[in-house]
Amino acid sequence: MADILIRNAEIVTMNSSEDIITGDIRIKGSLIAEIGSGLTPQAGETVIDATNRTVIPGFIQTHIHLCQTLFRGKGDDLELMDWLRKRIWPLEAAHDEESLYYSAMLGIGELISSGTTTIVDMETVHHTDFAFQAIAASGIRALSGKVMMDQKGGDVPAALQEDTASSLQESVDLLEKWNGYGGGRIQYAFSPRFVISCTEPLLTEVRDLSARYGVKVHTHASENLGEIEIVQAMTGMRNIVYLDHLGLANERLILAHCIWLDAEERRILRERGVHVSHCPGSNLKLASGIADTPGMLHEHVSLSLGADGAPCNNNLDMFNEMRLAAIIQKPQHGPTTMDARSVFRMATIGGAKAVGMESSIGSIEVGKKADLALLNLRNFHTFPSYDVDPISRIVYSATRADVETTIIDGEIVMERGLMKTMDKEI
Ligand code: GUN
Ligand code: FE
């Protein structure tokens, strides 16, 4: 892998002062080695002339289902529980090794070509090893795990229902194979689907295993009013209260959606350091609701962004999520609410905090991983008028078409729409 020198770029650092500078970035191995101006190329370096280009930290999406990429358009115009029962569960049950591999690779292609460099991903019950193989070959940074569904009934197809013991054992086997792969580029995340699909013994064992191995737990919660009613009937508690009661609410937990919360649940999220993955595109399309992100930010709940699965949203593009996260709040809360910088923070450093990697990803700083996207913001739809904050231009005007190059772990994984490492041996 050649070292890289990016010259003469506008650099949106997202360091603690959120500096935006013009200069050069030297990448050695997987790390940012130097940031400066007038850096001279060294022997063997790949030089990227970034004149009139903008370099940003790669986006970190904290809720993705690569296994659902092939289902795009198959479950349109349904709400959550019907969408799962009628479309998504039968389709996940029908996956084989090959279809899962290509579903994952197709999703990763979309993600890295739109500037996403890290994902928190939830797979299906079976064949998850093949999704990990796609992740390994593509070069994307990922926390992923097989979905866990050991609760009987609830219209889940028989093919997706598993025993508690085998669900746990298969998860641990995958963890032992993949956690730490590629110098830590891949991590395992236990992925109980949601309270409805899991038994209490499974959830408490996941709690203990995540502590023992020091890995994340990734699940859905409080997305839909019907879901909350079922959880209440099953447990006698509200969703987040139940997760806390089981000891799962802690800084290792990444919770997708969190739309319908009461004050006590928000207090639990804040006090326990739980990370919320806000998915505005999915929340709108599945008619789930609008999460109170201004309220959560005000209360210092950890917030990041995710596109969810392709059929939740028809799109895995972080530009879309950032724009939606900003504009859906404005009619109710006013135009300065969820400003461009707030949502850009959620898409970068906020995601890094959620995955426990704020010292190594989420901003452009010497010593951090070289996970970057290079944008051309001089296309017709983004061309600047004078003195416009580039972050504002990125959030409100940029699209995936503006991403020219994506670098992960110091490696160019995508250049002008072409995935570089798709066929690499693993
Ligand atoms: N809740 C449980 N499973 C899912 C899923 O696959 N997608 C979404 N959006 N919500 C869920
Ligand atoms: Fe989801």
Automatic annotation (TrEMBL):
Record keywords, A-Z: Hydrolase, Metal-binding, Zinc
Keyword tRNA processing on entry: no
Residue span, Amidohydrolase-related domain: 54-413
Pfam family, any one: Amidohydro_1
Gene3D superfamilies: Metal-dependent hydrolases (3.20.20.140), Urease, subunit C, domain 1 (2.30.40.10)
InterPro entries tied to this protein: Amidohydro-rel (IPR006680), Metal-dep_hydrolase_composite (IPR011059), Metal_Hydrolase (IPR032466), MTA/SAH_deaminase (IPR050287)
One Gene Ontology molecular-function label: metal ion binding
Full protein name: 5'-deoxyadenosine deaminase
